[in-house]
Amino acid sequence: MKNYDVVVVGAGPGGSIAAMEAANRGLKTIFFERGRRPGEKNSSGCGLGPRMWTDFRFMKELTPEVCPSMRAGAASRSYFVNKQGVVAGYVMARPTESVSYEPAKSFITMNVYRSDFDPWLAAFATKAGAELKTSTLVTGLLRENDRVVGIIDEHGEKYRGLVIGADGVVSMVARQSGLRMRWDQDHVTLVPQYDFAVDPQRIDDIMGDETLAVWWSALFPAAYQVFFHDGFHLGLGNWMTWWDKNPLYYLDQVVKLDYFQRLVRVLDARPREYHAHLLPWLGSPGNTHTDNVILVGDAGGFPCPLEAEGIYPAMITGRAAAEVAADAISSSDTSKEFLDLYDRKWQQTSIGEEFKTGPELARIWRALPFSPKETMSWFVPMIMEILGGILDWSQPHAVRVRQVMRHVKLYLPQAVPFIMRNVLPLLEKILGERMDMLTSPEKLIASMPELQEAIASAFEEKEERA
Ligand SMILES: Cc1cc2nc3c(=O)[nH]c(=O)nc-3n(C[C@H](O)[C@H](O)[C@H](O)COP(=O)(O)OP(=O)(O)OC[C@H]3O[C@@H](n4cnc5c(N)ncnc54)[C@H](O)[C@@H]3O)c2cc1C
Q1: Sorting pLDDT into bands at 50, 70 and 90, what band is 446?
Q2: Which of 147, 148, 310, 424 is the Cys-Cys partner for 303 at CB 3.0 to 4.6 Å?
Q3: CB-based pocket (< 6 A), ligand 1
Q4: How many CB atoms lie within 10 A of CB 201?
Q5: How many angstroms does the Cα of residue 418 sit away from the middle of ligand 1?
Q6: Residue 238 forms beta bridges with which residues?
Q7: What are the residue ranges of CATH 3.50.50.60 in the chain?
Q8: For 395-418, how does the pLDDT look when each residue is reduced to its tens digit (9 = 90+)?
Q9: Which of 2.60.40.3500, 3.40.50.880, 3.30.1050.10, 3.50.50.60 would CATH assign to domain 2-70+112-185+282-355?
Q10: Measured in angstroms, how far is the CA atom of residue 406 from the centroid of ligand 1?
Q11: % helix / strand / coil in the chain, to the nearest 5?
């Protein structure tokens, strides 16, 4: 039996940060990775959100020298694909004027291959003094008097200490500690993706600073495309309950699009790998801790409820878990009751804020891109009618405006209930009492002197003209 203060299972982003923060607090820490090195078993999540640069100062040290796959991009594209498989239009966007978060002004995501990023991150933990044991599968939890006191590895070696389960979506720690037997099928998604190799210069020449694309369509659940230094991923996902065909069938619908094929040709993209991963996607995380055990990252169900950004939440919960572990160990109390502090800690972070509207955010995603046949069948043509309808010279413009309005009216029986069911509850939660303003034009005008002034001067101008 080997004795540690903290035993971390998993050396993904959650495990490495937990190990680093625990070691920085003077705790004797070990973290385990079943792969030969961190990142070997994980080629999934890849877009790093800007919040990471503010919350983790060492992120400034992430450079192409240490992470050759990295590629930053400020622009993202949404493609709208109609039922005939034609890209009916697209919108490109950059960080907007209202963005107040400094790092996010220059890039939307920093894309990295996990095989580069995870080892880089784990090195901060070993530098801080944590011991990393690779090529070691943790197979069980060690119990004494029915209480978890540590872990057992595949060789039967025992390690005692407070256990931090950072072992990803299929978490042995969650299962064996009794925190979760298995995911509800409606809480976990399956995400198949292709990895394509592309010459870096070609990506820059053709894509510029585009980093990310989302393909919206009734033919498949929303697909994402993420560009790296020398390639891109194309993937899509949905809850396990949704698939009525092999998930590859839907991914191949994107690959077969003429537009996508053209992109493949101009980029000279070559298929390199195929992956399929599970990813938890919940409105609120499940059970997160019990006596002497804390779950972080995917193991605890922490990916963002709207778009499943999971690396940042894993790192934030890894840090919160280490802080609580340090307090618990110095108080000689690692009971579930003491570890309740963990929930209070992560709830005070940026991801706690995210989960305040978690059920509503997850519901919108479920109703929109994850219900392609029901929702995208009217959403895509409606958006395209609004965006593209006016730019048409086949009639006088006034005639076209009337035609567009008449046509958009056809979608209202679907759009209005959708908004009432899915959008208004979210706005109510976000805006609270200010929601009144949206439903009452008088209140809106009364609360905005600038608007009152603008309306008054518009009327004055009209009178003068008359
Ligand atoms: C296709 C896909 C795309 C995604 N894209 C993004 C994205 O763009 N941005 C983003 O932020 N998130 C993304 N995510 C989510 C993100 O990948 C995860 O949320 C994140 O990796 C969670 O980190 P983690 O440390 O909790 O778990 P993981 O990254 O899964 O790490 C767990 C580690 O534990 C190891 N391990 C597991 N079991 C054991 C064991 N018993 N013994 C020893 N070692 C073990 C594994 O090998 C692994 O290294 C994506 C996910 C998928 C599936």
Answers
A1: confident
A2: 310
A3: 9-15, 32-35, 38, 41-42, 44-47, 137-138, 166-168, 172, 191, 193, 235, 277, 279, 297-299, 303, 308-312, 314
A4: 9
A5: 33
A6: 190
A7: 2-70+112-185+282-355
A8: 999 999 999 999 999 999 999 999
A9: 3.50.50.60
A10: 48
A11: 45, 25, 30
